[in-house]
User: What shape does this take?
Amino acid sequence: MAGGDWREEVVRGPLAYNNWRTGIELNVPAERAWEYPLFTDAFLYTVASLHPWYQPILTRRYGPYEIVSTQQRSLAGGWRPSLILRIEEHGYYTAPYQDEKTDAVAYHGGREQDEVAALLALLLGVRLKAGWPTRRFQMGTDPRGLPITPGVPDPTVPETSPLGPILPRLLGQHAFEDTPLLLKLPDLSPEDAVALVRAARLYQEAVWVAEITPELSWLMLVSAVETAAHRWRSEQAPIEKLRDFDAKLFDALTQRCGEDLVLRLAKKIAGSFGATREFREFILNFLPGPPPEHRATSHRHPWTDESMRKHMSKIYHYRSQTLHGGTPFPAPLCQPPTVGQDETITEVPDEEGRRVLGAVWSADDAPMLLQTFEYIVRGALTKWWASL
Assistant: This one.
């Protein structure tokens, strides 16, 4: 945690971070609390049970946040509130309103419960979103709280593709206990906390829409990595970024123009170059190991630095084509994987899948399926989180 007055520090962080830090610093009971249902299409189990339809209620506390299992399971799948999130409010500080000055340093388009749900979605590898509050507690009064009917619809998990799930790993059973990284949140700097929450929110939205608009999911997963990568490289001096971007160009400019002018140039354009490299190097630095299970014997992606470096550059190229040229991500990258009877999952498009919608892509130009990239992104983001 950076030095200085803690009030000035927390107002630069996301809402969940601010609330947690305020509770630590003030060390007083919360003023009020709220309950929010968390919706998912996965089965979040708690502990092993002899009875297939019984899961003991389990709670986990992370500072002012308590997560409670609901024992909900559905034979037919679909959305349901599998967890309840309780938030204790500590009267956290917010940035003062100034009429003529914009302050969106921690803005990401969501609320405190959305932040916690997004962090959980990233940690658990599931689709997870918060509904509106269903109960309010005023501390020191009724311990059972006051039920609330918000009068607005809860989030609905999109149905899977008619050709099969595009992200099959997000379905099925996931251990609810796998959330220890949440305890690191209040120890981060405000800047790290903002980058983490923004990346998690992009991941949350990406997997939420993957089954109906996988092209958009690709864009948001790339953006999630970019958000984290930019923060990861933010402490690198501009002159070092320019040297890394093109060492020969750097040497030529230095010889021709001198170090002072090159430094001024580097400071001016530091945020305008090296985006592909930054994205690619973040993935390579935090690359998770290959999936430990359910890998098909054929149509595997090679898990080497060389192949990842080449394919991440290709993926970032597609991102730029989409944003600046209007060309969607290639259709083969957006198809569901083949899931075998033994639950093995393919990682790259097959030859037939590369001929679709009146176009054809070579194997090099269709390097991996969305489900493979999602696995890589989630693994890289959580490894980065653990390193903070």
